[in-house]
Specification:
Blueprint lengths: L1 H4 L11 E6 L10 E4 L12 E6 L4 E11 L17 E2 L8 H13 L4 H8 L2 H4 L4 E9 L16 H12 L4 E2 H7 L6 H8 L3 E9 L18 H12 L5 E7 L5 H14 L3 E5 L5 H12 L5 E4 L5 H12 L5 E4 L13 E6 L17 H12 L2 E6 L4 H7 L5 E6 L10 E6 H5 L12 H12 L3 E5 L8 E4 L18 E5 L6 E5 L6 E3 L11 E4 L3 H11 L9 E4 L7 H13 L4 E4 L12 E6 L3 H4 L6 H13 L10 E6 L5 H8 L2 H14 L7 E9 L2 H18 L15 E3 L3 E8 L2 E10 L2 H13 L9 E5 L6
Parallel strand pairs: 9-14, 9-15, 10-12, 10-13, 11-12, 13-14, 16-26, 17-24, 17-25, 23-24, 25-26
Antiparallel strand pairs: 1-2, 1-4, 3-4, 3-5, 6-7, 6-8, 18-22, 19-20, 20-21, 27-30, 27-31, 28-30, 29-30
Helix pairs in contact: 2-3, 2-12, 8-9, 19-20
The structure holds adenosine-5'-diphosphate and zinc ion (2 copies).
Amino acid sequence: MSLFASEPFPAADAPPLVVVAVERAVDRSPDGLTYALPPALAALPEGARVEVPLGRGETKTPGWIVRRIPETEDPGVDRAKVKYILAQDESGAVLPGELVQFARWISAYYACPIGMTLASILPAAVRKSIGRVERTLIDLAEPQPDPSATGAKKLNPRQKQALALLATLPRPIELTEFAHAAGYSSPAPVRALIASGHLVAHRKTAVEAGFIARSGGVAPAPEPTADQRAAFDAICADLGRFSQHLVFGVTGSGKTEVYIRAIEECVRRGKRAILLVPEIALTPQTVGRIAGRLVHAKVAVLHSGLTAAQRNQQWTLLAEGGADVVVGARSAIFAPIPDRSLGLVIVDEEHEPGYKQDSAPRYHGRDAAIRRAQLASCPVVLGSATPSLESWLNATERRLSRLHRLPKRAPGLQVPKVSIVDFAAERRGFRDGRVNLLGPTLREGIATTLDAGGQVLLLLNRRGYANYIGCSDPRCDWTLTCTECDAGMICHVDARGQIRRSFVRCHHCLAEQLLPKTCADCGKPVTVFGLGTQRVEEELSRTYPALVEGQTMLRVDSDTMQTAAHFHDALERFGKGEVRLLMGTQMIAKGLDFPNVRLVGVVSADTALALPDFRASERTFQLVSQVCGRAGRGEKPGRAIIQTFEPDAPAIRLAATGDFETFATRELTDRKEYRLPPYRRLARLVLRHPGETECEKRATDLADALRALAPEPTNPRAGGFSGVVEVRSATPCAVARIAGRYRWQIEVLADSAADLSKLLADARSRGLLRLGEELAVDVDAIAAM
Ligand code: ADP
Ligand code: ZN
Ligand code: ZN
């Protein structure tokens, strides 16, 4: 790096010292361990990945240079005892300084050791140099060897000809390419010319980086509405300084248009932008739209649907400053944008739970985005039709972010007509003796839509065939549960091949067995009941001759969509119109923009309401509004039909009328009363252990230890806190055992993020929080773990 190139080499007796954070699950306070740089590596910058000897056994361990200790600073260690760094990591990866600083915040806030955090930021494909090619470039030696010198090789006419040809070619040129041009059938004659000193060669390793962002063609820019203009004008006015914006726009209101205009302006000013989208499969759709509009911008993509080589390419491209915009899922917030060039961060569908990472560091992509923008002194834009209550509170009561409303759909788009149907009443209409999951209203809706040439989206948030397997005798209460987990088994039907085979699977440990035929307690036949996407699929094929599984009807859930490519392919077939009905779990509720969807059906809006979580209402509201928002995105109007056993639940009623503000006000009143997030910060610690009593003991001990660190409720300032931190008693998790391990949790609630961070930092420095198999820490937990 040029930053250190001009520095003189320090004297041999005083090698430069650096702080290295090793990739281990333990905190080495404060940041890492001190090592010395050997002369060959004296210029390594912060952010470089290295290998160091660790511990008495000097185990070779990967780590990161997080700080170069200035020569004038007392390193606080005995220089004679400091060990040398062994090598720079083979990938040669170096994170930009801003990213290292960002990683420090992630590490501190989400209570994850810095080395582990940095390791998670660097994609494995980059670390392993996947897709990197080695090339040998050659050029004519200057001067050419003297032919009269003793021992000089005499050139034959063919070789002379080759050299003459090379003089006319653009140089340096790749060895094999030149061999080919010179008419050689192998590279050996060229190597001979290198050996004889007529050619010089140097090796170059490179990641062949190109843009994989595809545009579906250049799209014309629509005339922005006044609301859109007000939003992007306000954002553009803030370019160059940190500020938060919430674009609260109903589905189809043209939020993406606001993002595009803001990105356009950011790029025009020579800065780069990050756009986060919640779902991997949506990235190609969004990328296509962005690339089609920003024809002069270079758009990179980062998401888990890429091949390893592609991921390395896109990462390298970004690190080299070759892209203006990066669009990607959650982890794209760690895009290696060169220092001082990030100008805008956007988080689309900011309310999506998918932004929370479910392994350490358990960061929230949206909150991380806010912090990254703050470090880069640039605006951050959050967008949603159903903002999270955190963001809503920030934009309204707390006035931390500016609120931009887009209350109307984009010109030409109509708001879908939403009907709530009481499923209990609907069911009474059936006389066929079957248990039907689609009521008469929804059935009729599907039939009319299909007849009119429209497409249908059908949502059911539960995979499998049926979620209860029990005894057919009502006097017997036996149900099939997993032997390794405290959870019921889910019935699935395997339709591969000719034979339909029923089996049961545990959705927690993934154990499988064949569906038992008889009750384990009384021997009577087994019966399955409850909801599942497979069962709806079966009912649809039985009811509509036009719907054929796998052809005109596709099921989208994590069973059928094992990779992002599967999902992308399903969406493409739906987009082309060959698939008439797409049914599935919440994977289909998000962000899809297909103009011919004229009906959205929700098989059961109750599945999210039943979650053991204080956010159950919020999730239900989001799910219902979002999925309804997929209808009516074309010229033809759209409608939505919602089946529920709780037609009066406010979350469902208000979602159907599209009244977010009333919902938010009601919900926030409750949260305030119960002092729940967003009024307090919540961290959840989960302890896991194979022994039930041991698990409980560890959880109780940890809760006691944390409570001892918490501030005095009467005088928090004495301990350096600013408010109250409540450490609740340890309790078993909602699923109290998974894969043979018991699970207990501790909830910590604090009035401020700073207080929560302080408590966890104190606990870390005492070695209380060693992350791993036995302990997970989830700061700002958004769902039960
Ligand atoms: P959202 O992200 O808010 O759901 P989109 O940005 O997807 O909405 O916009 C919905 C549709 O409306 C898109 O097809 C988009 O091209 C179109 N659109 C957006 N803004 C305008 C506008 N000002 N005039 C006409 N059409 C627009
Ligand atoms: Zn299980
Ligand atoms: Zn029984």
